[in-house]
Amino acid sequence: MDIPSPIADLLEDYVDGRLDVAGRDQVEQWFYASEENQRLFADWFLWQAQLRDLEQVQDLRQVFGAPPVAARVTPQKSRSGRRTWRTSTWLAVAACLAVAAFLSGSWLSGRDGDDARSGHANRRARRLAAATPPAATLSRGADCVWGDSGGDHHVGDPLQIGEQLDLREGLAQLYFESGANVVMNGPCRLRIDGPMSCRLDVGSVAAEVPHEATGFTIRGPNAEVIDLGTAFGFSVDADGGSQVHVFEGEVVSRQLDRSGQVVGESFRLVENQAVQFFPGQREKATKLAADEAQFIRTVPTLWEHDAIELLPHGADLALWLRAEHGVLADQQNRVIAWQDLTLLDNARANDAFQSQVALRPVLVRDAIGGRSALRFDGDRTFLSTPPMRTTNNQTIVVAYRNAPFATRPRYGGQLVNYNGAPSRFFGNTPGPVYPGVLQLGEDVGVAPVVRGAMAAKAYLGKQKGRDLNVGYVKSEPLGESRPIVVAYVYDMANDRSQLAVNGRIVDRGNADAPVAITSRKSIGRHGVFEDWGFCGDIAEVIIYNAALSSEDVQSLSESLMTYYSISDNDR
């Protein structure tokens, strides 16, 4: 492989646990710098896939948990002659590279450190219990009928490693922790093997796999498909025969024997190509033309028939949650899922979920200007998106109103926090930790908290017991029960941040630290401390992977003010 020696050395450093922040950034920059670099990775992956010991490292849960374990293979000497290339370790490292966005987040949840303080009571804030991320989430469903063998499942349910899904009828969409999406078309039986893999026993699935989840693998009784950043379909019939159809991009597929060992030829398939495997007859594996019509690639949304008033600015849109559309609630109107409106430039759905009944906010009709909103209790309720990639330039816009102050259990509520559980806990770091974590809400960590004032910043950890923040901006007190459109712009490219309330800029600051991260976005609560929950109504949450201009912020704010009947007197 023509991977540059410096990058190879850095990857070895990662394996040995010695890769620092600068090195990690260099590896990620190399991977995303060009299609040629990504092609090198794809070629290398195919080479690795043909090695006899691939099965020992096929479970890529290593990326998120224990360190990789070296397979017993003959070492291959690198072109530089300076290091050896350990087969199984290299495969795990390549997977890590493919999900570099996860590496940039340092997903930690249990370290001790300095306790943050609540400005309201000046007492120790309660840290959220350490959470283990599920391997996948049942993100969407349509007319699902579940069989007895796998138990019943509901939208928003976390799916752990080893969990079986027996879908007799309907469609079910699985969002894997790695970023891969898989749509099951009943009847279909599937087992969750990890954030990067699953097993299809019978039925058909369609997968959409982003580049950061390259290496995502689906196995069947007699074949497997390894993704190289693509969209494909995989089906297994009642006799164990299987087909792989590529809609976009590229995959590697090969036949397996009854023990799961690779047999026969590996097939590298690109767009519009397919292959059929016959159980026990490897010499009959046949290439076909792909037939996308055999597979269902999407699950109908809750809002597909709604008339939706579009935003005036659609470029770089990454998340759009509007309570008038796409909210799934239980019988008590507690919100299970809030579906992302994948319109305009928003191509990838990042629905927000709450699987625990006691933690669900309540859907309230006629809340703000006659429109729906989600009501958060300021104590426990919140929603969380799956891990989503955001960039160094960000714009966060929220339409909300505070509950009457007399009804609030405490102050310091967060509207949006980019450190959703399982969260990084910065602790008593000796200096800045990059990337920083954006947060928008009342000014936590200071005393006293100004009731109803809005603040935003990128939090970088602590130094000598003091918070390190950049992009810090704040407003004057905004009052209670008042509908507000707040917009926070973090513009690292131009070293500027600004906060706008109802279209008017109220504060400006700097923005000179990186904040690009793949993380869950918490809505209605801080990502680490449970004391800082928002109390009030949130009607809309919008995130752009760009720093909007002041003119665009004003235009967008005015559009939302009109939509929610917020008058100029509220400015």
What does this structure look like?
This protein is mainly β and 571 residues long. It folds into three domains: 5-98, no CATH class; 136-294, Jelly Rolls; 387-570, Jelly Rolls, CATH 2.60.120.200. 12% of the residues lie in helices and 37% in strands. It has six helices and 33 strands. The chain has helices spanning 5-15, 21-33, 35-49, 87-98, 100-103, 550-563, and strands at residues 76-77, 84-85, 136-146, 158-159, 164-176, 181-194, 197-208, 217-219, 223-227, 231-236, 242-248, 250-256, 262-270, 273-277, 286-289, 317-322, 327-329, 335-338, 352-353, 362-368, 371-377, 383-384, 388-390, 393-402, 414-420, 437-441, 455-463, 466-474, 483-491, 496-501, 504-509, 517-523, 535-544. The strands form five sheets. Strands 3, 4, 5, 6, 7, 8, 9, 10, 11, 12, 13, 14 and 15 form a 13-stranded mixed sheet that branches. Strands 16, 20, 21, 24, 29, 30, 31 and 33 form an eight-stranded antiparallel sheet that branches. A hairpin with a 5-residue loop joins strand 10 (231-236) and strand 11 (242-248). Helix 1 crosses helix 4 and helix 2 packs across helix 3 (35-49). The model is unreliable at 46-123 (pLDDT under 50).
